Known about the structure:
- Among the domains are: 2-149, Rossmann fold (3-Layer(aba) Sandwich), CATH 3.40.50.720; 181-215 and 308-383, Rna Polymerase Sigma Factor, Chain: A (Orthogonal Bundle), CATH 1.10.1740.10.
- 46% of the residues lie in helices and 15% in strands.
- It contains 16 helices and eleven strands.
- It has a seven-stranded parallel beta sheet with strand order 4-3-2-1-5-6-7, sandwiched between helices. It has a four-stranded mixed beta sheet with strand order 9-8-10-11, covered by helices on one side.
- Helix 10 (217-230) runs parallel beside helix 13.
- The radius of gyration is 20 Å and the shape is globular.
- The model has no long low-confidence stretch (mean pLDDT 97).
- The structure holds NADPH dihydro-nicotinamide-adenine-dinucleotide phosphate and magnesium ion (MG).
- Magnesium ion binds at residues 151-153, 222.
Amino acid sequence: MKNIFIAGSTGSIGKSAVEVALSYPEKLSVKAIAAGHFTGELKGQIIKLNPSYCILSLKAEMDKAKLEISNLPDIKTKFLYGEDGFKELVFNEDIDVILNAISGSSGLMLSYGSVKAGKNLALANKESMVMAGDILNRIAKFNKADIIPVDSEHSALFQCLNCGNKSDLKKLILTASGGPFYDLPKEALCGVTKDMALNHPKWKMGKKITIDSSTLANKGLEVIEAHYLFGVDEKDIDILIHPQAIVHSMAEFMDGSIMAQMAQADMKGPIGYALSYPDRFHGLMKRLSLSKIGRLEFFEPDTLKFPLLNIAREALRAGKSMPAVFCEANEFFVNSFLRNEISFTDIASNVQKVMERHSPFDINEIGDVLEAKKQAVMISKTL
Ligand code: NDP
Ligand code: MG
């Protein structure tokens, strides 16, 4: 039995994780959950799971939760809030695995706290790896904590890399569904609205990652994430557009063999694998019928139409504080776009401007990452 803490339990990944846990009650027990706000969804989870702990991002939300739950006699959940709540919980000996499914850079401190406490981290929150990859790896290694990717491409690579020696690896090939604007002419992108961008053809996800998928910033973040997770150079990480979203990524070895991981486009697969690793859960996903799918296609991405791909690569090549600045600036302008303050194409041009105005500095400890975040926001606000 593994005892798990699902952070971001009311989001797209979090809800799938709760479903996985409820499907395998003999293997998984949810000891703790966390969300930003006290919603009906969270209340339902508390009633269904009766977790020992629930963390809310703010005290006011925690007070609301306590009030509502106090009249439910069988619920024994203890409520905590904010980063202090996370700090207390990561050291709890009853928790074996922490699934970080918080969205955006707010997930950073939980990833950091988890590996510091020596807890195995099932990592959906790619932003924390992008901003603080070296630090998370170093501390995880020191404290013998595993970081197991939940992002579908990285889960695929994690599985493919088990098929050979790291020293024999030639390339990582990340696949991308292409997003909703794959067929739209470049000139039409400036007219893209929030509603158009939020309509992803293959995956139902939170708002931030859905916009990132439509600009392909998501794939740029994933190149950086892959670099830190697997220790592979930027030049050896390729991207292919694969509209069917069946091959979730590939590892090419030096003899010319390419290992691919295939499955339904269902996040329960990577979530379940990260929680069952090194074992697998029986019947986790619907079986794949390749003859029904019939055709698998692969294309080169259009980096002129989606400049954030190359901007992310530039950030990774520059290193130091630049990946964190790229990540934070991108999040800042995605939020501006979601508030209808800037156009779709402004996201990329503004991120580029922030990076041009930032002088990269060394990242040695978590405080340096927080400083990079702060500087990125300061510059972003001037644009
Ligand atoms: P959602 O926006 O759907 O959910 C985010 C969750 O995090 C919500 O439960 C939210 O609660 C909670 N949350 C936000 N801030 C805090 C905080 N400070 N403290 C506690 N909880 C908080 O996001 P997704 O599930 O789509 O994505 C989560 C992460 O997983 C992202 O980093 C994303 O890139 C990654 N990912 C997602 C995939 C997907 O298919 N969705 C695929 C691969 C990776 P509330 O709403 O109450 O604020
Ligand atoms: Mg992904």
